[in-house]
Amino acid sequence: MRGISSGRVLALLGATVVAGLATQASVALAVVPAVATQAATGVTIQAATLRGTVNPRSLATSYVFQYGPTAAYGAQTAPASLAAGAAAVRVTGAAGALVPATTYHFRLVATNATGTSVTADRTFRTPAQALGVTLAATPNPTSFGGPTTLVGSVTGTGAAGRPVQIQQRAFPFAGGFANVGNALVTDARGRFSMAVLALPVTTQFRARVTDRAGVVSPVLPVGARAVVGTRVTSTNVRRGGRVHFSGTVRPSEPGRGSRSRSAATGAGSRSPGRSRDRAAAPSRSTARRSACPAAACTACSSAAAAGRPCRTSGGRSASARTADRRENHPRELPERPCRPPARRA
Predict the structure, then answer these.
(1) What whole-number distance in Å separates Cα of residue 50 and Cα of residue 62?
(2) How confident is the model at residue 120 (pLDDT cuts 50, 70, 90)?
(3) 262 and 270 in contact (C-beta within 8 Å)?
(4) What 3-state DSSP class applies to 11?
(5) Whole-angstrom Cα distance, residue 32 to residue 86?
(6) Is the predicted pLDDT of residue 237 greater than 80, yes or no?
(7) Are 296 and 310 in contact (CB under 8 A)?
(8) Pair 90, 42 in one domain
(9) DSSP label at 217?
(10) Residue 86 shares a structural domain with residue 119
(11) Do 146 and 203 have their domain in common?
(12) Are 207 and 217 in contact (CB under 8 A)?
């Protein structure tokens, strides 16, 4: 040391310190995770698979993909982890809740006990969604001549501000569809609606996007229920009396038969009358139901309903008629033949 000047000693010490610091920095950098991204795959209008590689550098490592419509990201995949290892491992993450026709940014972030590594920003773009249109009606069915409201929506890229034409085809659906009023314009969410004030018959509706060929909703049938009204001449009838039922059916259909049902017995009967058109008024069906004076047996009631004489009292013994009468009618009735009233012309 005697032959070495003090200046040379200081220079040697300085070089040793610098070399030590460089060695420590290289050791620290060697254990930080190594990360890289690859192109996204499986990109749809709503989802994508983000890909990359992570080298844990011999330490347990966790990682996530961050993604969003800008470089600020705002969303990330579910956190995942890797065991300690010295080789690069392929990793993936699922990005969801995406919007069609939008560019997204993403990056890979990996962290271990030493620190965090982040890749450079990368992008992918979701495809455009094809246009579609749906249509519904409330109420459906409606009553004859009643109102209904058509409500629909256009889905897909560029659904807002689209012209939509409502079309209809009335029963019996023999011709083509005809336009209903002027074209509607969808709102910011692609929705539209139209009020139908009166529906006289069952009608088919559909919606068509006029500025895009082939974009038509499925056919929507909207029913128009018949409106039936009934009247009765009296609600308090003595035994053996006659009750006159009448009613109206809208829409009118001359010649169409009708049925009436008794609330007391639950028995249905065919109306002897026919619907008849009265100067564009609603069609009317008239039914007369007659009570048998004796109501002797089930066969008698059937004969009266069919409009023919009852013959159960003829050719049978008194004991048989009495047994039949007691079986079908708990109350005692006078012993006399059943003669249904004559039908009116």
Answers:
(1) 16
(2) very high
(3) no
(4) helix
(5) 11
(6) no
(7) yes
(8) yes
(9) P
(10) yes
(11) yes
(12) yes
> Do 217 and 135 touch, CB atoms closer than 8 A?
yes
* C-alpha distances in Å from residue 149, one per residue of 135, 205, 250: 10, 11, 22
The whole-angstrom separation of Cα 145 and Cα 126 is 48
Last residue of a domain, one of 225, 245, 272: 225
Q: How many domains does the chain have?
A: 4
Q: Out of 107, 125, 143, pick the residue that ends a domain.
A: 125
**What CA–CA distance (Å, rounded) separates 13 from 29?**
25
Contacts 24+ apart (CB under 8 A), 325-334: 325/296, 325/297, 328/295, 328/296, 328/297, 328/298, 329/295, 329/296, 333/294, 333/295, 333/296, 334/294
Amino acid in position 291: A
Q: Residue 168: what residue type?
A: Q
Position 19 in a domain: no
pLDDT at 248 exceeding the cut of 90 = no
Place of tokens 């993403």: 106
**Is residue 20 in some structural domain?**
no
Domain that holds residue 140: 132-225
Give me the pLDDT at residue 341, please.
57
Q: Do 211 and 237 fall into the same domain?
A: no
Tally Cβ neighbours within 10 Å of residue 201: 13
Q: Which of 128, 73, 130 is nearest to 104 (CA)?
A: 73
pLDDT at residue 338 in the model: 53
Q: At 251, list the tokens.
A: 């829409």
The first and second tokens of residue 294, run together, are 């004796």
Residue pair 146/198 in contact (Cβ under 8 Å)? The answer is yes
Structure tokens belonging to residue 176: 């083509």
Q: Could you give the C-alpha distances from 211 to 174, 186, 188, 216, in angstroms and in order?
A: 27, 12, 17, 11
Match 């347990």 to its residue by tokens: 60
